[in-house]
Amino acid sequence: MARAATTSDSFNAVAEPRRAILAYLAPRERPVSDIASALRLEQPSVSKHLRVLSDVGLVHMRRDGRRKFYRTNAEAIKPIRDLVSTQSRNFRFFAK
């Protein structure tokens, strides 16, 4: 079976460095410049990753003048968290 495009599937969208971006946004909303600085990534790269995350609904964007602020969408992240939690329990069971 063909793998879904990164831009249309939230499970594919959370690959590194997008996973790091989501973790950085988890506590609160932040502007692109703060994300780029904290993660030591170029601003255009961060913007592209945020676009992918936004397209699959994992982050929301808010404008304040010329600045864009991003925050995680906990509702959309829940299925990923549930899958990881289930898989983690399964792996522990088989590791015994």
In words, what does this structure look like?
This protein is α+β, with helices and mostly antiparallel strands and 96 residues long. It has a single domain, classed as Arc Repressor Mutant, subunit A. The chain is 57% helix and 15% strand. The protein contains five helices and three strands. The chain has a three-stranded antiparallel beta sheet with strand order 1-3-2. A hairpin with a 2-residue loop joins strand 2 and strand 3. It is elongated, with a radius of gyration of 15 Å. The mean pLDDT is 82.
CATH class designation: Mainly Alpha
Give the proportion of residues in helices. Answer: 55-70%
The number of helices is: 5
Radius of gyration of CA atoms, rounded to a whole number: 15 Å
Indicate the mean pLDDT.
82
The CATH H-level superfamily is Winged helix-like DNA-binding domain superfamily/Winged helix DNA-binding domain
Q: Structural class given helices, strands, pairing?
A: alpha+beta
Order of helices and strands: HHEHHEEH
What is the total domain count?
1
Q: End-to-end span in angstroms? A: 31 Å
Strand order of the largest sheet: 1-3-2
Total count of strands? 3
CATH architecture: Orthogonal Bundle
Globally, the shape reads elongated
